[in-house]
Amino acid sequence: MHIVKEAKTFDTISTEVLVVGVTKHREQMQDWASFSTFYGDSLNAWLSTGDVSTDLKKITKLPFIKEHAKLKRILFVGLDERKNLTEGDLRAAFGLVGKELRALKVKDYSIWLEAFTTDAITVTDVAFLAGEGTGLGYYSIPHYKTTSNEVDYRMDAVHLVTAADDIDEVVAGYEVGIIYANAVNEARSLINLPPNLLTASDLAYYAEALAAEYDFEVEILDKAQLEELGMGGILSVNQGSVEEPRLITLKYKATEDFADPIGLVGKGVTYDTGGYSLKPKDSLVGMKGDMGGAAAVLGAMKIIGELRPHKNVVAVIGSTDNMVAGLAFKPDDVITMYSGKTVEILNTDAEGRIVLADATTYAKQQGATALIDVATLTGGVITALGMDKTGALANNDEFFTAFMEAAQETDEFVWRLPLTESDKKRIRKSDVADLNNSPGRDGHMIFGGGFVGEFVGDTPWIHLDIAGTSDAIATHDLGPKGGTGVMVRTLANFVQRLGEEK
Asked: What is the pTM of this model?
């Protein structure tokens, strides 16, 4: 996308659509009198009567009523009371703008940045949120319909209408927002891919392409190599599959010595039948998205590759599917994990934690001094927190507090649950092994994440269960139903913040 850098006055705009924020007290806005004259004498009357709404996130579309070279229409975006406006409100509003721009098949548009500023939200902040929000809202799910002949429109240019002195800083803000949006959208597309088109090998190919694009160090371990290492967790889950597993490692080296890397670990189960603990038929639909944690890690790595923060990162993804077959692992099996610990299998549908445990052990071996694992792990997190909250466990308060600051900036809701000694005792309760993989349904989310915690030791660690937030059951402000790409932005933002501490 081309970003036009010059500040423009209203009478020199040459674009298809102009986006303008409107509030209840618009007379306090700088240049409002000039703009209302530019548009037409009736505008203030329409705002007063509600024909042009100032309600939060309400979009009013009007044609341009004066002669103009190219400007066809204006989108008025309701902001309600300017003093109450948050960055989350603006991101969501711009998401709806993105949807509208796509519906209008707009190829270039202008945005009056000062119309969205507040005392706390600068022009550069608005530019970032506009890039991120419109990019997220513009996304559509790839499909395989043979009857569609609709032209796939793409945004070619955006004009930033602003009186800001440092236009380069403002443009940079917009560009970073677009980088964030593009990474989330790629993660969404991975999640939305049918499982026959995204196997563990396919996910590895994507990671290799990402590594080539951003000069990451990459390692892909196949089944024979996993067997040589004794990675019994991933291999056990893979036993029933005709598709080989993969362990994917990407390293972003901000320093030559690769000191103190943070580990990002993703669950890459490309399809989950539940194995012999078979899921009900209705629950099988949507299991193509059980690699949402892997998508989140890969999306974060794309942003990291673009922005090059001063923080070393090692990303590890364990990938396989979980199928039913004569050789599939089964309840009552005892398996030996990569760490050497033994596990009694009580539920083959509790497979994600087994894959994560091996991947987490490997991340530590690659030097990770702090860990975040991300997974669509349990239905229990949905029971506990609903579909709009990511559940978390942590073993280090300082590490989790720093992470939450990043999550609050991206407006991705995370809620920490307790992991007690009583919970750990139940995970460790087995007559025949060191651990069991499914202590019960009553604290399912805690037991799932707590199982992974048995493999991290004293390393600062956060577990993120995105089973509810990785997939949207209906369209929302920032995108369509389907994969959301949740945690891409927060993980990347957290790594950026860590880099700024250096």
From this structure: 0.96
